[in-house]
Design goal:
The chain is an alpha/beta fold. It is built from six helices and eight strands. The protein has helices spanning 25-28, 55-68, 86-98, 112-121, 131-139, 163-173, and strands at residues 9-13, 18-22, 35-40, 50-54, 76-79, 101-104, 126-129, 153-156. A two-stranded antiparallel ribbon has the order 1-2. A two-stranded antiparallel sheet has the order 3-4. Helix 5 links the parallel strand 7 and strand 8. It is globular.
């Protein structure tokens, strides 16, 4: 809901676990030059809400994350988070910017062993997710022959990240 207005209609797209909300925006909320998209926060630290991201903020994120992770066209990562959130948008755009690959995991976290299998099978170089999802991956029983040596980085955000979780990830994936 933007302000107090309800959408004219909403459409659920099951394949990507996403709602498209249709508003008569012109009558509800003026946009500023440079506004790019509205993403919806999950409400982790507060109430769920729509947030406007500008072209400049998206560009800054893409440049900063690409540089920080030293992403290149040799990199590849699974994507299993909803594409309605900024985290996934950032991941897609940073990888596209450098020509890196993304492997969509259609079942998301429903079958976390598929994510671990994909990292090993396709020698993926990155893993990006929330601490909750990373903890689920750590607790997932899997074939002991899986090899995670290809992982170059693990990036997390969107929730508090504990030292204990860091230590567990470092132990499993180093």
């Amino acid at each position: 809901i933007i302000g107090t207005k309800k959408p004219n209609r909403n459409i659920y797209i099951d394949e990507i676990n996403c709602f498209i909300l249709e508003y008569n925006i012109k009558n509800q909320m003026p946009s500023n030059n440079g506004d790019a998209i509205i993403i919806y926060t999950s409400g982790t630290t507060n109430k769920q809400k729509g947030v406007v991201l500008t072209e400049e903020s998206i560009s800054n994120n893409v440049f900063s994350v690409s540089k920080y992770l030293d992403l290149s066209s040799d990199d590849s990562s699974p994507i299993f988070t909803s594409t309605c959130y900024a985290y996934s948008i950032s991941m897609v755009l940073t990888h596209a910017y450098v020509g890196a690959s993304i492997l969509p995991i259609p079942d998301r976290l429903m079958f976390p062993v598929e994510i671990l299998d994909a990292i090993s099978k396709y020698k993926l170089t990155g893993l990006s997710s929330t601490p909750t999802a990373l903890n689920i991956l750590l607790q997932t029983k899997h074939d002991d022959n899986l090899n995670f040596d290809s992982l170059r980085y693990i990036m997390t955000g969107g929730q508090p990240f504990s030292q204990e979780l860091y230590n567990q990830l470092n132990s499993k994936f180093s």
